[in-house]
Amino acid sequence: MPLPQEKTKFTYRDYLTWPDNERWEIIDGTAYAMSPAPNLQHQTIVCNLIAFLGQKLRGRTCTPWVAPTDVVLSENDIVQPDVFVVCDKNKMKGANIQGAPDLIVEVLSPATAKKDRWDKRNLYEHFGVKEYILIDPAALFAERYRLGSNGQFDRGEIFDSQQTLSLQSLSDMEIPLWEIFEVEGPKQDGEEAAKAEV
Question: What whole-number distance in Å separates Cα of residue 125 and Cα of residue 197?
Fold first, then answer.
């Protein structure tokens, strides 16, 4: 059985021979061991996102997915995004997703932040992912990148936990980030006035 450290360029065929109890991603032929099980804050955000998307997309052509689900972008590029949405049913094969999802969300951790911000951002841009979201559980913010008509991501935009994140790839669906982070939401004008009077 070929192990990831024995070659310099790996393919999906190699990937299929690796032990089932190990999780790997391949980016441009380079194998990356997935970090140990994510912490509870990371998983809470993933669960909240998939529940929100599942509810909002019910009855529509788009389907939300969660890791570990293989996304095969090419023979040398196989990833398992934390949360993603595919709107083209032809990409949904029996064993995996083949082709770029419309939306990908990665929840950052210290072990994966650099790869998610650089390697995966470049990879997703190259393969035409329409929208890429990075969520930082520690700092409570999200970064959004949208693919332009030139085939490149824009410069990105930052949203804090008190803002609503609009997903253009899903017909401008709006996600209240405070619900995803499970923090107190923004105060309404009436609430602030009432507290000021007390």
Answer: 51
Segments forming the whole domain that contains residue 171:
38-185
Question: Which amino acid type is present at position 118?
Answer: W
pTM of the model: 0.90
Q: Residue written as tokens 């609430």?
A: 191
Residue 49 lies in a domain: yes
Contact 76, 13 (CB under 8 A): no
Phi, psi dihedral angles at 131 (to 5 degrees): -150, 135
Structure-token pair, residue 81: 């995004």
Going across the sheet that includes 103-107, the strands are: 63-66, 83-86, 103-107, 131-136, 141-146, 157-160
User: Which pairs count as long-range contacts for 153-157, CB under 8 Å and 24+ apart, including other chains?
Assistant: 153/121, 153/124, 153/125
10 lies in a domain?
A: no
Q: What is the dihedral of CA 106, 111, 116, 118, to 10 degrees?
A: 170
* Separation CA 189–CA 109 (nearest Å): 35
For the chain, the straight-line distance linking the first and the last C-alpha, in angstroms and rounded, comes to 70
Give the model confidence (pLDDT) of 114-151 as tens digits: 999 999 999 999 999 999 999 999 999 999 999 999 99
Residue pLDDT, tens place only, 85-119: 999 999 999 899 999 999 999 999 888 889 999 99
> Which residue, chain included where needed, has tokens 């770029």?
100
Q: Would you say residue 13 lies in a domain? A: no
Type of residue numbered 178? W
Domain count within the chain: 1
